[in-house]
Design goal:
The complex is a heterodimer of chains A (456) and B (467). With 456 residues, chain A is α/β, with parallel strands linked by helices. In chain A, 45% of the residues lie in helices and 14% in strands. In chain A, β12, α14 and β13 form a beta-alpha-beta unit. In chain A, α7 runs parallel beside α10. Chain B is of the alpha/beta class and 467 residues long. Classes of the chains: A alpha/beta (456), B alpha/beta (467). β2 of chain A pairs antiparallel with β3 of chain B, so a sheet runs across the interface.
Chain lengths: 456, 467
């Protein structure tokens, strides 16, 4: 295994997005919330457009719409106008504010703006407001996402007598993943605050009227109850454990927390189910035991199609770690694990999930690189001669150039329908990933063969 | 119940309901969820199709990431424009300045990709940390021997329209720097066609068939060398006038090249564009003759099929919300050609004259709106009960969520909609969305979402009867 952190002078086709995008997505997972970006109009519009192309849903994100005057004299007037107009048009329960690089750089004091606004405009039933600092020059969209989750909890969680309930902070997963997690928790009869929950707000039914506040999202009451839960579970081996929502709840309300990897593949999912078993006092429901069993059975059926295949894995750090854990279990060799994230914890996290997989003498070298862009990935992939790529749709140009298939997972998926509904988590998610990978390789083999095999 | 924000009431007009003009050319209302982007966006979209130039976004990563390969502006050669290059500014750069990083990044990228020119876009943050981007550009230009052009596109310094202007200024620095030999006395530049799905190539062929030389399309399949000699053309044809009129005026002042506003959408406007050009070159009557033949031939080829679509689309209603209002005129006319009526029409950046003209060609009761937002658009769509929405990526989910057919007339389209064949594609796209069987199932068209189950007893008796 080799580890390299690259620092080019420029970024060429970024393998990351800016912090406010992550924050806005997290905000859309709170019931009755409207995100407001304090900054230029373009930030909200670009982020909406980027998210819309993946989720294919209306995603309203307001902007305080800075002008030249605002940048010189401060954004107080724009902020107040934006909140008033949002209140009037959307009647939200929560206005969740994230500050863009412009607002951060000119030194906007959001606490003061909140205070001034409330002093003038507070009335019974006024929406609550919270602020998360998300300058895009610090971190990636994942940092923005986790900061927003923590910010929501900091603003809304309250103390109370300890209840039989857990908090689950899954990170940036798909809407299908969120629905699956809720189903699992229900089957364990374990009351839970899942935050954020954009499973409905970002993947909902059609409307007969425009829903200013789309149905769904984590209820504010459930977030308030976070402070009295018996346990917090957070997914992500590369999280900065001192900066998460779980850490805040532990420090402030003494809610114990456990950090797990994203439950992708057998071992990471086993760890999650074991923890749920302990927390709920129930054995693993039989349907999940069966799902696990069927999955293992299918691994046996399909193992030869994937053994020793070389994969390039890229995307957010925690997704990469989860995918690598899974790929190693099925016999695929991740030859390059790459991310635009720069937590500095990627290699260590991969080492953790690799530990219990026996290494083979013939195993290929695994390159692990944080802080890379897609040109770095392409250059390295060209030399590594992978059999397939696995990651978001932004790797398509590389796959096309190398003439290898791309297995689309994660975010964003801008060139297929239903990208938001891909299931990655749990035994069921692993089953779908496995079937997809095997079938992708089979299809390639069938197409590349002159024989035209009708049995594979 | 959706209410229009009081500050925005003047930006909505209902034709025939006794008000004066529409308020427009304003900055967007804070908190309104405008469909507009920013100054940077305006510059980026206009310069994007210059395919053999390096486009470097100076700022934190977002602005570059969200504009990576975002437009379907096709290139016949270099594909360099489809990349996304950024200085990816970090906290330390914001504190100590990003000039060094910009210089290093530019040099590295120019060495690697060997572009014919480089555009450096300033983003919001550059406007407040005070980097001397012009000085860096001058230095690198000297060092590398290619034009390195700063684009003053700080996001907060105005609206998208100001970004168009900044882009025109940037292109202006390239003009007049190349040789003009071999340019015909009957020659034009195309301004404001972005070669989406190859549309410029279609239009270019029409002009060539008429015996008119196209020197450069400045905004579609553009090459730096062609732009350098664009000042040798005899006429500028300006589509997307919101973005390109400034450049056309610059060229008129500096090089004495007159310009005409044209549109390539719909049969009427497409034909008018060709005839207007032919009229301009009246010293060569053969051009008009060829134009007439061309129009006859092309219209003849598509007309029967258009009529077939028209039969079924007759009387359907549409909403239009696009970036520039000039395109909206063509769309109103093109819809009329296939039997459809425009009930709602708006744009992000229209001017007072545009809206006045728009009102003139629309039917009574049509809602005209400037710089709208999702709530208003949804309200109008439902109020007018439209069958079709024409817009871009950000409007699509509004339409679909409410169960309305949609035609993408923005930069993501994959089928050419310009020219005569484009009109047929447009009609086909409208037809295949409006006539889809899926709409019968959407909530807006269904009384009850859940199928009503017959009583168990009556079901049993039915089964018994059948037996």
């Amino acid at each position: 295994m080799s580890v390299a952190e690259s620092k080019p002078a420029s970024c060429r086709n970024a393998c990351k997005l800016c912090t406010p995008l992550g924050a806005c997505l997290a905000f859309r997972g709170v019931e009755g919330a409207v995100p407001l970006l304090h900054g230029s109009q373009g930030c909200s519009t670009y982020i909406r457009r980027y998210l819309i192309s993946h989720f294919r849903e209306p995603i309203d994100i307001a902007s305080s719409n800075f002008s030249e005057d605002t940048a010189v004299f401060g954004g107080a007037a724009n902020f107040k106008a934006a909140v008033k107009n949002l209140h009037r048009q959307y009647e939200p329960e929560l206005i969740a504010v994230a500050t863009t690089c412009l607002a951060e750089t000119i030194g906007e004091d959001m606490n003061r703006l909140f205070y001034e606004y409330m002093a003038e405009n507070w009335e019974e039933g006024h929406p609550q407001m919270l602020h998360v600092s998300t300058p895009s020059y610090r971190g990636t969209h994942m940092d923005g996402f986790h900061a927003a989750v923590r910010g929501i909890v900091e603003a809304l969680a309250t103390t109370g007598s300890r209840a039989r309930r857990i908090n689950l902070f899954p990170g940036m997963v798909s809407t299908a993943d969120l629905r699956h997690l809720k189903e699992i928790l229900t089957d364990f009869s374990l009351p839970c605050t899942l935050l954020p929950d954009y499973s409905q707000t970002m993947d909902g039914e059609g409307w007969s009227e425009y829903e200013t506040l789309p149905t769904g999202g984590t209820p504010m009451k459930a977030i308030a109850a976070c402070g009295s839960s018996q346990l917090s579970i957070e997914f992500g081996h590369t999280l900065d454990r001192t900066k998460t929502a779980g850490e805040f709840l532990q420090e402030r309300f003494h809610v114990p927390r456990r950090l797990l990897g994203l439950p992708i593949g057998i071992r990471e999912t086993d760890a999650f189910f074991e923890l749920l078993g302990v927390a709920s006092g129930h054995t693993i429901p039989s349907r999940y035991q069966q799902e696990r069993g069927r999955f293992v059975d299918s691994l046996v059926d399909g193992h030869k199609y994937v053994f020793g295949k070389r994969a390039v894995v890229y995307g957010e750090e925690d997704l990469v770690v989860g995918l690598v854990a899974f790929l190693l279990e099925i016999g695929v060799e991740p030859v390059l694990c790459a991310s635009g994230g720069e937590s500095g914890r990627l290699a260590q996290a991969i080492e953790t999930v690799r530990a219990t997989i026996p290494t083979r003498k013939s195993s290929a070298k695994m390159e692990i690189r944080g802080g890379v862009d897609f040109v770095d990935i392409r250059e390295q992939a060209e030399a590594l001669k992978p059999d397939f790529l696995i990651g978001n749709s932004k790797g398509y140009s590389i796959a096309r150039r190398l003439n290898v298939p791309l297995v689309r997972v994660g975010f964003p998926i801008h060139d297929r329908l239903g990208g938001q509904r891909i299931l990655h988590l749990g035994y069921r998610g692993a089953q779908q990933l496995f079937d997809t990978i095997v079938n992708t390789l089979m299809e390639r083999k069938q197409e590349d063969s002159e024989v035209g095999y009708s049995y594979l | 119940m959706i209410n229009i924000i009081p500050e925005r009431e003047g930006q909505v007009l209902r034709k025939g309901e006794g008000q004066g003009g529409i308020a427009c050319e304003k900055k967007s209302t804070a908190g309104s969820v405008s469909q507009r982007a920013c100054v940077f966006c305006g510059s980026r979209v206009v310069l994007y199709p210059i395919s053999d130039a390096l486009h470097v976004v100076h700022g934190p990563i977002g602005c570059a990431a969200y504009t990576w390969d975002i437009r379907g502006a096709l290139s016949s050669g270099s594909q360099l424009h489809r990349n996304s290059f950024s200085t990816d500014l970090r906290e330390m750069d914001v504190i100590y300045g990003g000039e060094k990083k910009l210089r290093a990044g530019l040099c590295e990228l120019i060495d690697e990709y060997k572009p014919k020119a480089a555009f450096v876009y300033s983003t919001c943050i550059v406007g407040v940390i005070g980097d001397d981007v012009e000085a860096v550009c001058r230095t690198v230009e000297k060092e590398k021997g290619i034009p390195v052009i700063p684009v003053h596109s700080e996001g907060f310094k105005g609206t998208k329209k100001d970004g168009y202007r900044a882009a025109c200024e940037a292109v202006g620095t390239l003009l007049g720097t190349g040789a003009t030999d071999g340019i015909s006395p009957h020659s034009v530049n195309i301004l404001g066609d972005f070669n989406l799905a190859g549309e410029t190539w279609i239009i270019r062929k029409y002009y060539e068939r008429m015996g008119v030389q196209v020197v450069t399309c400045i905004t579609g399949d553009a090459k730096v060398e062609d732009i350098r000699r664009a000042h040798g053309a005899k006429l500028n044809l300006v589509q997307c006038s919101g973005s390109m009129t400034h450049l056309a005026k610059m060229m008129e002042e500096k090089y004495g090249i007159p310009f005409k506003r044209v549109s390539y959408f719909g049969i009427e406007d497409m034909s008018a564009a060709l005839y207007d050009t032919a009229k301009f070159f009246s010293d060569e009557p053969a051009i008009m003759e060829k134009a007439q033949n061309l129009v006859r031939e092309e219209v003849g080829a598509i007309y029967p099929q258009l009529q077939a679509y028209r039969e079924e689309l007759q009387g359907k209603k549409a909403a239009i919300y696009v970036g520039g209002s000039f395109k909206a005129f063509s769309l109103v006319r093109a819809l009329r050609l296939i039997g459809m009526q425009t009930a709602v029409v708006g744009s992000q950046t229209g001017g007072p004259e545009d809206y006045k003209q728009l009102a003139e060609i629309c039917d009574e009761g049509t809602i005209i709106v400037d710089d709208s937002n999702p709530l208003e658009l949804a309200k109008f769509v439902l109020e007018k009960d439209v069958d079709l929405f024409i817009g871009g990526v950000k409007e699509r989910p509004i339409a679909y969520k409410l169960g309305v057919a949609f035609c993408d007339h923005n930069h993501e389209r994959k089928e050419p909609l310009a020219g005569f064949e484009g009109m047929l594609n447009f009609a086909r796209e409208v037809y295949s969305s409006v006539m889809s069987p899926v709409w019968q199932f959407v909530p807006r068209r269904q009384r009850s979402m859940v199928p009503v189950m017959p009583e168990f007893d009556s079901m049993v008796s039915q089964i018994e009867d059948a037996v």
